[in-house]
Automatic annotation (TrEMBL):
It comes from Nicotiana tabacum. CDD domains: MATE_eukaryotic. GO terms for molecular function: antiporter activity; transmembrane transporter activity; xenobiotic transmembrane transporter activity. InterPro entries: MATE_euk (IPR045069), MATE_fam (IPR002528). This is Protein DETOXIFICATION. The lineage of its organism: Eukaryota, Viridiplantae, Streptophyta, Embryophyta, Tracheophyta. Pfam families: MatE. One of its GO terms (cellular component) is membrane. The gene is LOC107803190. Keywords: Membrane, Transmembrane, Transmembrane helix.
Length: 493
C-alpha cells in the first residue's frame, strides 16, 4: 500500500515536471517569435530616431543659432507631424495584422493604398505649419533670430513630411507580415547615407543648414524608394497585386480608425511636451528646464527601445486574433510584458547606479547636474514603467482599441497628471520634482486602467470581432459589392 502511494507520488511528480517543461517550451517558442519582430523593430526605430540627432550634430558645427533652429523645428513642428503620421499609420497595423492572421492577404495592398491616400492628404493639411513655422514660434515667444532661421529650415524640409506619409504605412504593411529585417537593414543603411550626405553637403560643400535639410530629404526618400521597390518587386504576390480603385472605397471608416490611432499616439508624445512647457513657466527656469530635458531625453531613448515591443505585441496579437486564436494572443501579451519589463528594470538599475555620473553626459554645469540627480528615483520609476506601457499600446493597436485607449490617456494624462503637476509644482512649491512625480502618477494610472481592461477582456469575443472586421473590411464583402470596379480600375505595377 505504501509502495503504491509512493509510486503514485513519483508519477505525479514526473507529470508536474513534464507540465513545467511544456510551459517552459511554450514560453521559449513565443519569446523567439517576439524577438524575431522586436529585435529588428528596435534597430529600425533607433536608426530612424537617430536621423535627427545626426542633423542636429552637424548643425551644431555651424553654430549655436543653427543648432537651436534645428532643435526647435524637430521638437515642435516636425515632431508633431511625425507623431500624427505614425499614429495614423497604426490603423494599418490593426487591419493588416488581423488580415494576415486570417490568411486574407488579398486586401493588404488596398489597405496600404488607403493609408497613403489619408496620410498624403493629411500632409497637405499640415504643410502650412512648416510654411508658417517662424510666426508660430514667435507666437510661442521664442527668440526672434532662432524663429527666423527655423522658419527657413522648416520650409526646406517639407519633402520629409511627405516622406513620412509614404514611409509609415509601408512600415506597417511590412511589419504585419513580419518582414522587419528588411526595414532594419534599410533604415541602418539610410542612417549611414545620412551621415555621409551631411558630411559632404554641410562640411565639404559648405551649404550649411540648407545642406543639412537636403541631406534629410534625400535620406528619407531613399528609404521610401527602397521599401516601395521591395513591396512591388514580386516578394508579396498575394498582398500586392497592383494599384486599385478599391483604395478609394470605405475611406470614411478607414479615416475614423486612422484618426483614433493618431490621437492615441499623439497624446503620448504631447504629454512630454506639456511637461517641458509647464516647467518652463518657473521663474529662473533655465536649470529646471535643462534637468527635465535631460530626464525626458533619456526617457525617449528608452522608449525607442521599448517601442520595438509595441511592434511585436501588435503583430502577434493582431495575427493571433485574426487567426481565431484568442488564448495565443493573450499568452503573447504576457511574454511581451515580461521581456519588456525586464529591459525596463535594467534601464532603471543603470540610472540608479550612475545617478551622479549620467547627467555629465549632457552637461558640465554643476547646478544642472545636482538638479538632475535629485530626480533620479522618479526617473528610474518612469523608465521601469516605460518598459510596460509600450506593450499595452501594442495590445491596443493589435486589437483595434485605439479610441478607447485615447480616451483613457486624455483622462489620466490631461485630466489627472498635468493638473496634479501644476498643483505640486506651483501651488505646493515642489518644483520640477512635483511635476515629474505627477507625470509618473498619470502614467501609472493609465497603465493600471489598461491592465484592468486587458484582464477583463473576453479574448474569444475579440477574436470574433477580428473575424468580422476582416470579413467586412477585407475582400469578401468589398469584392462582392463591386467586382467590376476593382477589376476595371486595377493596374499592375
Amino acid at each position: 500500500m505504501e509502495q503504491n502511494t509512493f509510486e503514485i507520488g513519483i508519477q505525479e511528480t514526473d507529470g508536474d515536471i513534464q507540465q513545467k517543461k511544456k510551459i517552459a517550451k511554450k514560453w521559449c517558442v513565443e519569446a523567439k517569435k517576439v524577438w524575431q519582430i522586436a529585435g529588428p523593430a528596435i534597430l529600425n526605430a533607433i536608426s530612424l530616431f537617430s536621423l535627427e540627432f545626426v542633423t542636429a550634430a552637424f548643425a551644431g558645427r555651424l553654430g549655436d543659432l543653427e543648432l537651436a533652429a534645428v532643435s526647435e523645428v524637430h521638437n515642435v513642428i516636425a515632431g508633431f507631424v511625425y507623431g500624427v503620421m505614425l499614429g495614423m499609420a497604426s490603423a494599418l497595423a490593426t487591419l493588416c495584422g488581423q488580415a494576415v492572421g486570417a490568411g486574407q492577404f488579398n486586401m493588404l495592398g488596398v489597405y496600404l493604398q488607403r493609408s497613403w491616400i489619408i496620410t498624403g492628404f493629411t500632409s497637405l493639411l499640415l504643410t502650412p505649419m512648416f510654411v508658417f513655422t517662424s510666426p508660430i514660434l514667435k507666437l510661442l515667444r521664442q527668440d526672434k533670430d532662432i524663429s527666423h532661421l527655423a522658419g527657413k529650415y522648416a520650409i526646406w524640409i517639407i519633402p520629409q513630411m511627405f516622406a513620412y506619409a509614404l514611409n509609415f504605412p509601408m512600415q506597417k504593411f511590412l511589419q504585419s507580415q513580419s518582414k522587419v529585417w528588411f526595414m532594419a537593414i534599410t533604415s541602418m543603411g539610410g542612417l549611414a547615407v545620412h551621415v555621409l550626405l551631411n558630411w559632404v553637403l554641410v562640411v565639404k560643400v559648405g551649404w550649411g543648414l540648407f545642406g543639412a535639410a537636403i541631406a534629410g530629404n534625400v535620406s528619407w526618400w531613399l528609404l521610401d524608394i527602397a521599401q516601395f521597390v521591395y513591396i512591388i518587386s514580386g516578394y508579396f504576390p498575394e498582398a500586392w497585386t497592383g494599384f486599385s480603385c478599391l483604395a478609394f472605397k470605405s475611406l470614411t471608416n478607414f479615416l475614423k480608425l486612422s484618426l483614433a490611432s493618431a490621437i492615441m499616439v499623439c497624446l503620448e508624445f504631447w504629454y512630454f511636451t506639456a511637461v517641458i512647457l509647464m516647467v518652463g513657466g518657473f521663474k529662473n527656469a533655465t536649470t529646471s528646464v535643462d534637468a527635465i530635458s535631460i530626464c525626458i531625453g533619456l526617457q525617449l531613448w528608452t522608449l525607442t527601445v521599448a517601442y520595438g515591443f509595441t511592434s511585436s505585441t501588435s503583430v502577434r496579437v493582431s495575427n493571433e486574433l485574426g487567426a481565431g486564436n484568442p488564448k495565443a494572443a493573450k499568452f503573447s501579451i504576457s511574454v511581451n510584458v515580461l521581456i519588456s519589463a525586464v529591459i525596463g528594470l535594467v534601464f532603471s538599475a543603470t540610472i540608479l547606479a550612475t545617478k551622479k555620473e549620467f547627467p555629465r553626459l549632457f552637461t558640465n554645469e554643476q547646478h544642472v547636474i545636482r538638479e538632475t540627480s535629485k530626480l533620479v528615483y522618479i526617473l528610474a520609476a518612469i523608465m521601469f514603467l516605460n518598459g510596460i506601457q509600450p506593450v499595452l499600446l501594442g495590445v491596443a493597436v493589435g486589437a483595434g482599441w485605439q479610441l478607447q485607449v485615447a480616451l483613457i490617456s486624455i483622462g489620466c494624462y490631461y485630466g489627472f497628471g498635468l493638473p496634479m503637476g501644476a498643483l505640486l509644482g506651483y501651488k505646493f512649491k515642489f518644483g520640477v520634482e512635483g511635476i515629474l512625480s505627477a507625470m509618473l502618477a498619470g502614467s501609472l494610472l493609465q497603465t493600471l486602467f489598461q491592465f484592468v481592461i486587458i484582464a477583463r477582456t473576453s479574448w474569444h469575443k475579440q477574436a470574433l470581432q477580428a473575424e468580422e472586421r476582416v470579413r467586412t473590411w477585407g475582400g469578401e464583402v468589398e469584392n462582392q459589392s463591386s467586382p467590376a470596379i476593382g477589376k476595371s480600375c486595377s493596374m499592375d505595377s
